[in-house]
Amino acid sequence: MTVDKPITWNQSVVAENFGISQMFFNDQWVNDEKVGSRKKLGDVSFMKQIVAKLKKGGIMKKGKSNYLQIVTYSGHNPFILPDNLKRIHFKGDYPEKMRDFMIMANYTDHGLGILLDYLKSRPDYKDMMIVIIGSHEGLAADRKPICESPAAKGIVSDKQFTPFIVVNAPVGGIYNKVMGQVDQYPTILNLMHLDHYKWKGMGQSIFDPRKYPAAVGSDNMNVETTGNVPEKEIKRLTQAHRISDFLIRHDKIIK
User: Fold this and answer.
1) Which has the closest alpha carbon to 244: 161, 182, 180, 162?
2) With 90 as the cut, is the pLDDT of residue 244 above it?
3) Greatest Cα pair distance in the chain
């Protein structure tokens, strides 16, 4: 489910090859809440319409395992939310981009709350695992100037974090060590007890005792660690992107 066109990121072809049986793109939603520079459907209305479709039935099959993927859009730069959709306002000398980002994040969080409240009301909620992740960090080039502002101190991190929240996970807790986006997939496989796959990506599950608390940024240069991490492991992480690209380009992934 996405408010984008089927051609965006080649999503229709990719989804079909992943075995996804139903796809909902931009023309299958009522764009009654235009958000962002491209005036796409906002996350709150998007979530309300998703709940309506789920209540109608035919998407999540009873008695069967279901996989549902939702791609939100509103939290993209420039984070401009129409005044009538703003749920919070800020007083103080906050940088404009920081203020816009927080207002937009609050808007998207409210939308997610609508979806979560519905899922929790379902009798099959106890059998669900809900994963909330970000495809990339949000502030990009705006992060450094925002962090230089006194008003951002203690609020905005200088690190490029992305969310990784698992609701109704079989294992509870908070992981405070460094992990990378590549570690999310094997961690999810672990949580779902799907450990028989030969190929689990270039990352490691956070439940793997052999995992070091380290990650590299998208530029393949920015290395973050928690505590002491051997140079050998840092070298492996910085080479992982290149090796992954080689495996995909030359179809060398283990079947």
Assistant:
1) 182
2) no
3) 56
106: part of which helix (H) or strand (E)? helix 96-121
The encoded tokens of residue 137 equal 């960090």
Q: Which two tokens stand for residue 113?
A: 């709350």
CATH number among 3.40.980.10, 3.90.190.20, 3.40.720.10, 3.40.710.10, domain 1-168: 3.40.720.10
In the predicted model, what is the mean pLDDT of residues 76-105? Answer: 94
Tens of pLDDT, residues 132-166: 999 888 898 999 999 999 999 999 998 888 899 99
Where exactly are the structural domains of the chain?
A: 1-168, 173-255
Give residue 233's identity as a one-letter amino acid code: E
How far is Cα 190 from Cα 185, in angstroms, rounded to an integer? 9
Q: For the whole model, what pTM was predicted?
A: 0.91
